[in-house]
Amino acid sequence: MSTVTIAPLTESLPAFLDAHDFSDIAVIVDSHTARFCYPELKPLLSKHTLIRIKAGEEQKHIATCELIWDGLTRANFDRHALVLNLGGGVIGDMGGFCAATYKRGIAFAQLPTTLLAQVDASVGGKLGIDFRGLKNHIGVFQQPTTVLIDPQFLTTLPERELRSGFAEIVKHCLIADAQMWDEIRRRDLAEQDWAVLVAHSVEVKKKVVARDPTEKGLRKILNFGHTLGHAVETYFLNQPRKRLLHGEAIAVGMVAEAYIAFQKKMIDQSLLTQIEEYLFSVYGTVRLLDTDIDPVLALTLQDKKNRGSQVRMSLLSGPGECAFDITVTASEMRRGLEFYRGLNKE
Ligand code: GLY
């Protein structure tokens, strides 16, 4: 596992650069981080190349990678160069993928600027891009040289972005720490202690990834809520309706998958009710139409945890516990989504 440092970049970045001898440095930003975050970084670097891409999940494809590889090539970067990915999950996943494949791989550091990227995407070395409308369909596992988390960046985030990142914190508590779940579920979003929760999520994720870096088994628990959540997110990505942020879709997935675990007698009614009530209180409801269900179910067949055409989920087996490789049928998933829609309450 790479080192993860939670500190102001003014401290962590000079220390990291002093300990290495990189031939060149590129900073990858999008239009948001160019404006809100790059001004903090720029004074800490001497000569460097700035590569700027458009913001948004819809940019996370191979054509944007070509722009990044082009920037590195034009600046004559050799194999001793460093890429700094300054941004959220899109920049980290795609910038890391470009660095991991440029000249068969150069060093890269994740400088996550959103809560979602700080508590999840930047840690663990999953890199990649979307393809033909499927999320993270093309990619590699490659650990970053380091992850530098500056808590200051959270102060510039819109509340909707904080709420989206919070879904991954909820997931980490539900799969690994019942006591922390009990603490966060008694507070609303505005009352959460981000410093404590970022450090907690990083620790949960680091421990799991250290035991299974390439997701052969245990790491699949980090995908609780993501089989249906990713399918809902992908479906909405290709719809004219309002876009869903990642965490908003994962909240849908966690409620529906908690119901599937309840149906399978893996969790009891009280845990299901806690999860449902808390997630609805923080995220409200996403309107799913009857006609949305079949296309969402079809998308679950592309999930990376599946075996052939069998959908395999990571499902809660108690508060703070998660099992993986659980085979789930289309009708179980349908009932999970119907429970979410309020149609299947028991
Ligand atoms: N986001 C889940 C993982 O990194 O494995």
UniProtKB/TrEMBL annotation:
Residues 51-163 form the 3-dehydroquinate synthase N-terminal domain. Keywords: Cobalt, Lyase, Metal-binding, NAD, Nucleotide-binding, Zinc. It holds the Pfam family DHQ_synthase. One of its GO terms (cellular component) is cytoplasm. GO terms for biological process: aromatic amino acid family biosynthetic process; chorismate biosynthetic process. InterPro entries: Dehydroquinate_synthase, DHQ_synth_AroB, DHQ_synth_fam, DHQS/DOIS_N, DHQS_C. It is an enzyme of class 4 (lyase). It comes from the Bacteria. NCBIfam families: aroB. Catalyzes the conversion of 3-deoxy-D-arabino-heptulosonate 7-phosphate (DAHP) to dehydroquinate (DHQ). This is 3-dehydroquinate synthase. It comes from Spirosoma profusum. The gene is aroB.
